[in-house]
Design brief:
Elements: H1 3-20, E1 40-43, E2 47-50, E3 57-60, H2 67-72, E4 77-88, E5 98-103, E6 119-120, E7 128-133, E8 147-151, E9 153-157, E10 160-175, E11 191-195
Antiparallel strand pairs: 1-4, 2-3, 4-10, 5-8, 5-11, 6-7, 7-10, 9-10
Amino acid sequence: MSTALRHLLASSIVGMFATSAMASDGTIKFTGEITAASCSATQGAGTSVTGGKGKQVIDVKLGKVSIDSLNGAPTGIVAGTAININLDCGNTATGLTTVKVQFDPSSGSGVDTKNNNLLKTTGTAKGVGIALYDSSNNLINLAGNGTFNAALVKAGTDPDFKYTANLNMRAAYMANEEAITPGTANGELPFTLTYE
């Protein structure tokens, strides 16, 4: 084997080890726990619920809204619809006090590109997104992993008790600063319930 070939082979081997021994700038530690809590949604005002635990679909009707309403609203928000979801957790939430709703827009319609607080609408309409508000009327930042909480309430006496929670929020169409054109404006927003 020639000297040049030996140097090339040695350099390649050193390069392989150098890339696998890169310096670290820090560590991300993940912590968590799997809980037995299992809640199912039942419909409240403004919603209908289908499907079983873990695969429930909550339908919210935003109605038909005029372009004039969206352009004329001082905040660009119209058609606010209350969403009241009742959770029944049976007796599975022992030791827990809070249920948190965490949204995953990227697994649904996505985040609106003009206003990343909004859920992107699918369909033929342009210039509008879907805004979600918590029970205190604060806009939930969908791009910033916005969540909202509700208290888990124990009702009844041992051994015949159950935990419940009421998730109250509001959805509305919001102009996103793009020219508005009429059409269908639907959206899908997967969510996960976590517990504390």
